[in-house]
Amino acid sequence: MQAVAERSPLLSTYRQFEQSLPDHPQVVSRLRQKGLASFEAVGLPTQRQEEWRKTNVAAIKRTSFERVGLDAVRLSPDHIQPYLISDCIDLVFINGRYSKEHSRPEDLPGGVFAGSLADALLARPELVQDHLGQHADLKHPFVALNTAFIEDGAFIHVPKGVIVEKPIHVLFLATEEDGSATVSYPRNLFVAEESSQVTIVESYGGFHSDRYFTCPVTEIVGQANSVIDHYRLGQESLAAFHIATQKIYLARDTNFFTHSINHGGALVRNDIQAMLDGEGIHCTLNGLYLARGTQHVDHQMRVDHAKPNCHSYELFKGILEDRARAVFNGRIYVHQDAQKTDAKQSNRNLLLSKDALVHSNPQLEIFADDVRCTHGSTTGHLDDEAIFYLRSRGIGEDAARSLLTYSFAGEVLDEIKLPTVRKDIEEFLFTRLPKGDIVRQAV
């Protein structure tokens, strides 16, 4: 272990972490060891690697992070309240660990498990071990790192034929500890069995300018004929690092919708990968990211069409100000047997300053001959003619620009089915945009 500590400070406390763990099933212990071995082999990525060429994680390597226990941080309900979403079942995690004090796991139909992964590994391991670690690739350095430190996170299991009427909100909050940067590795597993339905909101937040590193991995499994409506909200501190992986596995006739909204973090990267492994699947991946100052936001997308007669739709939009940077790499991979694939991918970016920059690279790899696939990317500034038109109608320049910016985001917002989430994002935009009150009145 000494060699590991010298090679990567992120592993310097691994022995202490191992000794603190309860008796989890052997399959989980073996999974941790595989994650550790993989991370030792690959280490942190560099910009010499193609997948990381536009995103520099050297700042993570330079920073010393501490893992802190739940008891070390005391947050009052007033700290938690701004991040909660009305009319939801709330599962709250602080620095990666489940907080029973702040959670409200009531109103669940019989047989549904929604709570702590650590608790599930002890009480219901048979529900967890068939899926945990089966979809996330350990060749990814941050998946390997997260896997080595599997301890807690959110576990949601919906049995066959069950419909969960009330949305489940999984909230992860991170904090500094006595002025020191902290690190957490939430491991999330959401399983919807055959013909079940569930809505899940997965959100990440932090306070003020707290420094921390959140490295989550979320595995989502939709079994045959299930319906999953998923939202992922990034509201991190502007001094935070957030490197996340989302792996989605879908069986036949599944309807899956995910909406990724990000407006926080100094360095943010989201790897979103979906495997469509059955016929008749409908998969929608939407996203909106807003960046200002020197924020850096990176989205890496991959959708695998492995079986015939499936549909996927991707729309990601970015709004960048100041010297912000964004990266979008999207790939639709159509396997040889995936005839009758219908896939569309679009990335559109709005630059509100001359110093903002976006690298956008949508891609298609098609090995079937009877498909309908399209992809596209646009990056530009607000239309001067549209601004002139609004100003000629008595609207000030700032308000005109804000109206057009809101309209640009509106295509993604209109796809959000959950009214409380859509309203919260709209209110954030009204607050952030100049002359936001005028925009609120106009829309």
Per-chain topology:
Blueprint: H1 2-7, H2 14-20, H3 26-42, H4 58-62, H5 77-80, E1 89-94, E2 97-98, E3 113-116, H6 117-123, H7 125-128, H8 141-148, E4 154-158, E5 168-174, E6 182-184, E7 187-192, E8 197-206, E9 212-214, E10 217-222, E11 227-235, E12 241-250, E13 255-262, E14 267-276, E15 282-291, E16 296-305, E17 311-320, E18 325-334, E19 342-351, E20 357-366, E21 372-380, H9 384-392, H10 397-413, H11 419-432, H12 436-442
Parallel strand pairs: 1-5, 4-7, 5-8, 6-9, 7-10, 8-11, 9-12, 10-12, 11-13, 12-14, 13-15, 14-16, 15-17, 16-18, 17-19, 18-20, 19-21
Antiparallel strand pairs: 1-2, 3-4
Protein architecture, described:
With 443 residues, the protein is of the alpha/beta class. The protein has three domains: 1-277, no CATH class; 278-381, no CATH class; 383-443, no CATH class. Helices cover 24% and strands 36% of the residues. It has helices spanning 2-7, 14-20, 26-42, 58-62, 77-80, 117-123, 125-128, 141-148, 384-392, 397-413, 419-432, 436-442; strands spanning 89-94, 97-98, 113-116, 154-158, 168-174, 182-184, 187-192, 197-206, 212-214, 217-222, 227-235, 241-250, 255-262, 267-276, 282-291, 296-305, 311-320, 325-334, 342-351, 357-366, 372-380. The strands form two sheets. Strands 3, 4, 6, 7, 9, 10, 12, 14, 16, 18 and 20 form an eleven-stranded mixed sheet that branches. Mean pLDDT is 94; it is low at 1-6.
